[in-house]
Amino acid sequence: MSSPSSETVAIRKGHELDLKRLAAYLVGKIPGLTHAVPLEARQFSHGQSNPTFLLSQKLSGRTARWVLRKKPPGKLLPSAHQVEREYEILSALYQTRVPVPVVYHLCTDPSVVGTPFYVMEYVPGRIFKDPALPGVSSMGRYAIYQAAIQVAADLHSVDIHAVGLSHLAKKPKPGKPVMSYAERQLRRWTRQFEASRTGDDSKEMDALIKTLNDTLPSDSAMFAQCLVHGDFRIDNLIFHPTEPRVLAVLDWELSTVGHPLCDVTYLCMPYYLPRIPNSAVQGLKGVNCRKKGILTETQLLRAYVNNAKAPAIDRPIAHFEFHLALTFFRMAAIAQGVYKRSKLGNASSSKAHMFGMFVEMCAGIGNMVLKSAEQEALPKECQGVDGLGSPGSLIPRFKFSVRFEEKRKALLRFMQEFIYPNERVAFKQHTELAKQKGTRWVHLPIIEKLKKVAKKRGLWNLFLTKSPHHSFDQGLTNVEYSVLCEIMGRVPWLAPEVFNCSAPDTGNMEVLAMYGTKEQQEKWLTPLMNGDIRSAFGMTEPRVASSDATNIETTITPTEDGYVINGHKWWTSGAMDPRCSVMIVMGKTDPRGKGSERKKKNKKTRNKKNAKKHAQQSMILVPMDAKGVNVKRPLTVFGYDDAPHGHAEIVLQNVKVPKSSMLLGEGRGFEIA
């Protein structure tokens, strides 16, 4: 971790602060700041926009520190350097998962330090100015980039209405066409660039402005909206001193309601920028990212899609190249402003003069990106199952049904409208009910409420895919359902059950749909498909390697009127749920392998020894309230008990069930599996 002194320099000429006046103003407004000792200040060397200062007071036995961020002096471009907006957004985000520093006070009176400013807490940690992360291990680099992506996804999932930032969303003007965020940005930064011209050659920039205007997409994917940072780079994140964890996101002056790719493409910029010695901006071009442990661009995009929960973003990285070129255009326009301020003498950094060459370089990269987009719709290897950047490893493009597309879009809308906003509701309900009832295995009212909505919208029992063995299917293929699973899996402890697609119920319902008798289906399948009960699956045993079912020791002994079951099961998924009513148990009806009620006579295709070995096992339905079913305790997975679902250790002692409980027939357990 860098020390405060290594991050700062003496206050630059033109940025001086009247510390006595400032201290007199802040006492009583900033926790811990006192009249008793002088207030000291140094200027942060990092950052090119709003001058930022480290304030400190040496108290008895410790040094108290705060950070002051202000508008630069002199004439400023319209709508630039909005410290008031930064303060508002930081205040709103403190209640969310997005890590931000505590803000203490906003001052709009320019007489105190010359321009408006705000004061926030000082967050000690690591700031990586070089995206190659020198001095960090390969595993550390990988984790740091993953952490950055997670923060971006968390930011984009913020409910702007809940945190009081809905006014940042641009409202259409009566009688005028609605503009996308990209179009607004293109217009704004074109104006900013024109206002910052210095007379230097700008052929690349002029060409980029023209191409962006000529190729501006207008389909619905361009109108995705969420809270964005606007300058989301590794060097605007403070990481924990030793852990790959983001403690604070800085520099929010460009934040607004816009398109999420605005932030994602900022993280991708280093892949296109060269490494220039002694430059204020460093890139990753020419760096072997895989060898260094740094996410490649493809991996970064996949990681974002996997974590994205932004509002109704149906195609998370559609028009990626356009957004990337727009980001380079924005960076070039910002660099032009920094360069002009260096000429005027009011830049916040001593290296601001170096940004002149950066303008044409960024514009050139933007032009290159747009040219490459003519041949390739998305970055290599990022064309997922629907050609729109779906997550996972490289998957060939499949042809999907119209029904699938309808279900997918409806599911994405439902996730945004009901699942993400209710994560905290469900967590709160679980905490309160567990405290009231003295157990973590409780049923949550919010789940029942959302299940009713899911049923009405036709997002129910999606797992029952096309099969010749039953008539319950939803008209989807396994491949189509797998894509829906990924979407539901973004909130794994809430979403699957809301759509009645939770394990082990899904597998158990499939077994009953394919192999259950009419009586078994009426008794167990119907209430399971209605979401009225839950179920469990008992196969794993403590004494044997149960992944190979030939090893299991649970016995299912036939009697005149039924079966008697004895055995010891654990990690029985679903059994801790208070609504669990039935368990499918795998056991042996023919432990010595003498035969089964179903024998094949084709000796050419049958190994007699193996047939006996795999004809010993049977699957049988066991009511959870049957005498002799003893749920001993919950078991953890990597330290988690997975409540309110959970996995149980169960002892089956002389459990009696009728003949009608057998699934398919004795010795046909492997056939079912």
Structural commentary:
This protein is of the alpha+beta class. Helix content is 34%, strand content 15%. It has 20 helices and 17 strands. The chain starts with a helix and ends with a helix.
Work out the radius of gyration. Answer: 31 Å
Instruction: Provide the spatial order of strands within the biggest beta sheet.
Output: 1-2-3-4-6-5
DSSP summary, beta strand count:
17
How many angstroms separate the termini? 54 Å
Low-pLDDT ranges: 310-314, 376-396, 596-609
**How many separate helices?**
20
**Structural class designation:** alpha+beta
Biggest sheet statistics: 6 strands, antiparallel
Shape: elongated
Strand content: 15-25%
* Chain-averaged pLDDT: 84
Helix percent band: 25-40%
Provide a quick synopsis of the model:
Helices cover 34% and strands 15% of the residues. The chain is built from 20 helices and 17 strands.
Strand-helix topology:
Blueprint: H1 4-7, E1 8-9, H2 19-26, E2 40-44, E3 52-59, E4 62-70, H3 83-93, E5 103-107, E6 117-121, H4 138-156, H5 181-196, H6 203-214, E7 226-228, E8 237-239, E9 246-249, E10 256-258, H7 261-268, H8 289-292, H9 297-307, H10 320-344, H11 355-373, H12 402-419, H13 423-437, H14 445-456, H15 478-488, H16 495-498, H17 505-515, H18 518-530, E11 534-538, E12 555-558, E13 562-573, E14 580-588, H19 608-613, E15 617-623, E16 629-635, E17 647-658, H20 669-672
Parallel strand pairs: 11-14
Antiparallel strand pairs: 1-2, 2-3, 3-4, 4-6, 5-6, 7-10, 8-9, 12-13, 13-17, 14-15, 16-17
Helix pairs in contact: 4-9, 5-10, 6-10, 6-11, 7-10, 10-11, 12-15, 17-18
